[in-house]
Structure formats: structure tokens, C-alpha cells
Amino acid sequence: MKYPDGRVYSAPSSWKEVTYGNRGMDLEHEINLSNQYYLETNRAVIYKKPTPIKVSDVDYQSRGKMIRKAFFESPSTTDYNGVYRGKYIDFEAKETILKTSFPLKNIHEHQIQHMFRVLEHGGICFLIVRFQTLQETYLLPAERLQTFLKRETRSSIPYSYFQEYGYRIPDGYVPRIDYLKVIDTIYGGVF
Questions:
Q1: Is residue 92 part of a domain?
Q2: Nearest-CA neighbor of 121 among 89, 91, 93, 96?
Q3: I want to staple 169 with a disulfide (CB 3.0 to 4.6 A). Which of 25, 35, 53, 137 is the partner?
Q4: pLDDT (average), residues 148-158
Q5: Can you give the three-state secondary structure of the chain, one letter per residue?
Q6: How many folded domains does the chain comprise?
Q7: 119, part of any domain
Q8: What is the pLDDT of residue 16?
Q9: How many Å separate Cα 7 from the centre of its chain?
Q10: CA gyration radius for the chain?
Q11: Other Cβ atoms closer than 10 A to 164
Q12: pLDDT at 21
């Protein structure tokens, strides 16, 4: 690209190249910041659950200890859990670049079953999905996910389903993703 005076513009070397690995990390980072805000303001205690791994080989010779081999010990459940206003909260966060739907292959069967078990025991459970291309984030209660899966045979949840049965989470400043405001809207009478 050229400036009006003819000089050539080149991007700073500090700019990162776009990569598609870890696409969900932006959403997770924003949720983590929101959870930190909730904790600091004593509004809720919600944490990201670590993925359970088993270390099988450690190098003790290098500076400190270095893990050489590890494997996933068991499938993890959902991304986040905690307590809000005396109720157990559990949810999964996902991103998609698609404009028209959220592929169900992005969420594992054992995660879905875990969400339904949480519902059976009276917990608050939901899915947060960001449609990256549309720059929109939705909270879909697990009850609505369950209804969709019972009625539909599709391999994806249409964007229109999120619009109709989900709750849009507007972008904010602090917290960035104020999903508890949506929880208050949905379950306000429960508290």
C-alpha cells in the first residue's frame, strides 16, 4: 500500500501473522478477564477448569523440570464452573467462523451429557458461542440445547436458533463479556 506522497507502507514487524490454531482463545481470554472481575468484585466465583493430563516423562537435567511427554488422562467436561448467588454454574465456551450455524462437532458428546447431568441436579448450565465473523456472542441455556438435540437431526445449530432461543451478550468494557447479566435475566426469579 502506498501513502498519498508515494511512500510505501509496510506493516510493523511486531504484528503477528494470523493463525487459526487456538481460535477459541480470544473468547476464553475475555471470559477469564470477566471471571477475574466477578471474583474481585465478589459477584461470583467461577474458574476455568484445567484439562486433566498425566505426565509420563520429565527431564530433570535441564534448568528446572521439563515435561517431555504427557497425555490426556480423561476427557474433560466443560470449560468453566463455579458458584453464583448460591447456585452452581457450569458452561462451555466455543467460537465459530461460520455465519449461518454452529457445528455440533465443535462440542463433544461427553460435554453435552455432562451439561444435561448438571441440569438434572438443579445447576445452571449453558453454552456461550461467539460467531466471530458476525462479531456476536450468544448464551444458549442447556435446556434449549437439549430441546434442539431432541427435535433436530441436523449436524449444526442454525444462527437463527441462537437469535430466537439464545441471549445475545453485548460486548462491554468491564467486564468484557457480562454473561451474569444474562443469567440474571433468565433465572432472576430463581435467586
A1: yes
A2: 89
A3: 137
A4: 94
A5: CECCCCCECCCCCCCCCCCCCCCCHHHHHHHHHHHHHHHHCCCCEEEECCCCEEEEEEECCCCCCEEEEEEECCCCCCCEEEEECCEEEEEEEEEECCCCEEEHHHCCHHHHHHHHHHHHCCCEEEEEEEECCCCEEEEEEHHHHHHHHHHCCCCEEEHHHHHHHCEECCECCCCCECHHHHHHHHHHHHC
A6: 1
A7: yes
A8: 45
A9: 43
A10: 20
A11: 9
A12: 42
Find the domain containing 134 and state its range. Answer: 25-190
Handedness of CA 37, 125, 188, 130 (dihedral sign): positive
pLDDT of residue 10: 54
Classify residue 53: in a domain, yes or no.
Answer: yes
Q: Is 30 domain-assigned?
A: yes
| Nine-digit cell string for 144 | 434449549
Residue 95 has which C-alpha cell? 467460537
Is 133 exposed, middle or buried (CB count within 10 Å of its CB: 0-12, 13-18, 19+)? exposed
Query: Is the CB of residue 34 less than 8 Å from the CB of residue 43?
Result: no
Helix axis angle for 25-40 and 179-187, nearest 10°, is 70
**In angstroms, rounded to a whole number, what is the distance separating the alpha carbons of residues 89 and 44?**
10
Q: Mind listing the pLDDT tens digit for each residue in 112-123?
A: 999 999 999 999
Residue in the structure block whose three cell numbers are 494470523 = 18
In DSSP terms, 77 is beta-bridged to: none
What CATH number is given to the structural domain containing 161? Answer: 3.40.1350.10
89 grid coordinates: 454454574
